[in-house]
């Protein structure tokens, strides 16, 4: 099946909330980083869209979502034409309002932890796990991971100078566990975001930008796959991007470690039915998963079934025979000559019933 791949970034704050750059500046940074689209998600506002900023800027498609709630239970909503009221104490109301408004959404950084070094230890996790009706969860959030990676400011500054990606190189295993357990019950889309704010830190007389937008746009990206080219018409292009995000027809690629473009994961059964990421097919005795990793570098492919690793391979292309139904997803790691493999790609699942 011919597919067109587009690279975007989803969880971004601009000066319409607590980010430090304007939408125009952010779009320019995305163009420099080689992105095709952006979803700006300011806190409790879609101000950029209300000001008519939706559309192509510097060749990058700029779309707007919003991040609802402040003290806890942050919910990233997309596909809305206007924002809905927040309700931290009863986030089910927020999920329902987003769905009623024609949108869909993800639980943002649901397993975030605090660190006394930053924000006085405050954190913004999800605390109501009885909610239903959400589309997915954020399994990899650059900003959260950075805030709880280090034990002292000195250590944080040291790694900021010498390897600023280090803090975010492994997604929180608690988030992956939650995702695996939810996606055994029903389809749950996973995505990653940087939570880009490009905030500034002071160190004595010096003030510097901790994670510039352009840097973050080269890290945890969303690679959507479309059956047709992205339309030049705004309403059609918006629909194409949002329907991919809603159906999980995409993968998460850490482009910082090497370009992830070209990764593919699909399943084919005896009846000739094919499922792509986010899709579902019925099981037959000759169902096979087809996986293609990007060609560059040393890699490790892991096939995960119902949250458990069932196969590992260093090959670039892999055909894996499915023995029983289940929820299948793929992780690809970069394998350095020394040290542990580092996460590079997370696919969305294929559900074999
Ligand atoms: Zn948040
Ligand atoms: Zn955020």
| Number of E-type strands | 22
Give the termini separation: 22 Å
Name the CATH superfamily assignment of the largest domain: Metal-dependent hydrolases
Q: How many separate structural domains?
A: 2
Task: Give, in order, the helices and strands.
Answer: EHEHEEEHEEHHHEEEHEHEEEEEEEEEEE
Give me the oligomer status.
Answer: single chain
Q: What summary fits the major beta sheet?
A: 16 strands, mixed
Overall CATH architecture of the largest domain: Alpha-Beta Barrel
Q: Which spans have pLDDT < 50 for at least 5 consecutive residues?
A: none
Instruction: Output the number of helix runs.
Output: 8
Strand content: 25-35%
CATH topology of the largest domain, by name, is: TIM Barrel
**Average pLDDT taken over every residue:** 95
CATH class of the largest domain: Alpha Beta
Structural features, described:
The protein is of the alpha+beta class and 353 residues long. The chain has helices spanning 23-32, 47-50, 91-100, 142-147, 153-162, 173-182, 213-216, 234-247; strands spanning 4-12, 37-43, 55-57, 60-68, 75-78, 104-107, 136-141, 189-193, 200-203, 206-209, 220-226, 250-254, 264-268, 274-276, 280-281, 288-292, 299-305, 308-313, 317-321, 326-334, 342-347, 350-352. The protein has 2 domains: 4-257, Metal-dependent hydrolases (TIM Barrel, Alpha-Beta Barrel); 264-352, Immunoglobulins (Immunoglobulin-like, Sandwich). It has 8 helices and 22 strands. The strands form 3 sheets. The chain has a 16-stranded mixed β-sheet that branches. A 4-stranded antiparallel β-sheet has the order 14-13-16-19, with no helix packed on it. It has a two-stranded antiparallel ribbon with strand order 9-10. The longest helix is centred in the C-terminal third of the chain and has 14 residues, at 234-247. 46% of the residues are buried. The mean pLDDT is 95. The structure holds zinc ion (2 copies). The site of one zinc ion has 4 residues, from loops. One zinc ion (ZN) binds next to loops.
